[in-house]
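Researcher: Going back to the complex we discussed earlier. I've cleaned up the inputs and rechecked each line, so this should be the final set. Can you rerun the prediction on the complete assembly and write out the structure?
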Amino acid sequence: MNDWIRVETRDGSTAFLPGETVEGTVAWHFDAPATSVELRLLWYTEGKGDQDVGVVETVPFSNPGVDEIRPFHVRLPQGPFSFSGKLISLAWALEAVAEPGARAERLALTVSPTRREILLPSGGAVAGAG
Amino acid sequence: MPLRARDNPFAVQRVLAIRYRLAGVTWEEMLERLAALRFRAAIVGPHGHGKTTLLEDLGERLGGRGFRVRTATLRRGERRLGPGREAALFREPDPADLLLVDGAEQLDRMAWWRLRRRSRAAAGLIVTAHRPGLLPTLYECATTPELLAGIVADLGDTVEEGSEELFARHGGDLRQALRELYDRRAGLTSPSAARRGSPSPPGR
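Model: Rerun complete. Updated structure for the full complex:
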């Protein structure tokens, strides 16, 4: 089985401004045709608590063949920004998913006004007493 | 610079990547037992003992054997399935449907009775519960200090005071033990403070 799927941005950029348009391609090879291939723009959290995910936009690719490269463009929303604190990180990603089999590839993105992940200050609420 | 949440070795996405480790039984034996119970059975154990993880792993294996796995999760205090979970379990039913209900002991008697009755048309019903009694017990989830130590090692870390003390402090609840380790690595509490029972500060 030599199935693969790949998502790339046009010039390899992974850091963007809010509201910016992301262009790129989704390429794949499947031994047997997929019934569906789509690209999802999503944010997700990582850290201590339950994980949250928000799918902001879905781009379906109609009639997927076994060997293809399809272009896409998606417009990023104004937020939330990519950030990290001690308890939670929020990240963005483009995720290409093919069914059946839930074959997927995720490309992590950073979305913020500085194109860099915002690091929350550690603040004073740290460490136990003593 | 403080450790970013996503880089914490005990971040939930890393913990969830560790799958259930059966003790004293193989997956093949577990599936044989489940078939002997006509796919109506319960996974039993206290909080933080891996019931949900085992249910997920079981569902994945059963899906690979031709069942159509349908899942619903009940949180604390949710006494009824409600429209969303009912749809997830029963919309467009198929004889190959295998219903997985996590936290079934939350249902009140009427809701549990309705679930059992409606599940008769399905290929099976597997639930998790804190105590035996809802359905024949398929597996009792247990934890040990060695299991905790193994999971911590798989996450690329160690327990400063040894896994026995941490394990005992949380009564065998591995989820809480791993959360304590998360807080320590995040600098939210120290091992000594945890031993004294100092709570983690609230907020994000």
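Model: Worth noting: The longest strand of chain A covers residues 36-47.
Researcher: Good, that matches what I expected from the previous run.
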